[in-house]
Write a sequence for this structure.
């Protein structure tokens, strides 16, 4: 456990989140696979999940759906899955999880699923911000431009991935921002990894 994150963990736990910290991706991956071993699992777009090799590990458990590695039906199957995994764009020491989405499949699946039993937020320590305003800034000006660049979007931010230009592009990936402060319907885990992961 990192001393500097203890207060943040206490805030989230006081609100009903289950918080776990792991020094390495490998340990976090083993924990998640064990926690979700009896459930089918949907995954939202997440470079963190990709870097951790989590999808491959979950496939060995049973059913896992991810549109990064499947056809578009994977989004529908993910939304109906018993468990859902998402990265975060930022998390604040004051107790907020911030995610931006283009289509809305990821943020809506985090908030609700008719079969949802468990939700897992995955987060490298590089996503931890001091407060909500910094978390929102990070989501807009670091995570979103880098994702736009990764997705080869025709947006001004994708050229240098340097900041948000609040574009009006039809390829804009920032159409909804969700700030979560308490668990919604599912048992909700926040898994922090002591590595830089994702954007
Ligand atoms: S609003 Fe447009 S410019 Fe800003 S990060 Fe999103 S896609 Fe890029």
């Amino acid at each position: 456990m990192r001393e500097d994150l203890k207060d943040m963990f206490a805030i989230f736990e006081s609100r009903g989140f289950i918080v776990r910290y792991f020094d390495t991706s490998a340990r976090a991956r083993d924990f998640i696979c064990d926690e979700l071993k009896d459930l089918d699992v949907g995954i939202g777009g997440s470079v963190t999940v990709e870097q951790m090799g989590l999808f491959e590990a979950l496939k060995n458990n049973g059913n896992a759906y991810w549109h990064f590695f499947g056809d578009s039906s994977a989004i529908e199957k993910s939304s109906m899955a018993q468990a859902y995994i998402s990265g975060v764009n930022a998390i604040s020491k004051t107790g907020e999880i911030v995610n931006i989405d283009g289509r809305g499949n990821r943020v809506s699946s985090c908030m609700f699923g008719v079969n949802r039993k468990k939700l897992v937020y995955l987060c490298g320590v590089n996503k931890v911000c001091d407060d909500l305003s910094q978390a929102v800034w990070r989501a807009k000006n670091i995570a979103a431009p880098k994702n736009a660049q990764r997705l080869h979007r025709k947006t001004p931010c994708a050229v240098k991935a340097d900041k948000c230009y609040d574009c009006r592009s039809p390829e804009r990936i920032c159409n909804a921002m969700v700030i979560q402060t308490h668990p919604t319907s599912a048992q909700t885990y926040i898994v922090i990894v002591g590595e830089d992961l994702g954007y």
The chain has eight helices and ten strands.
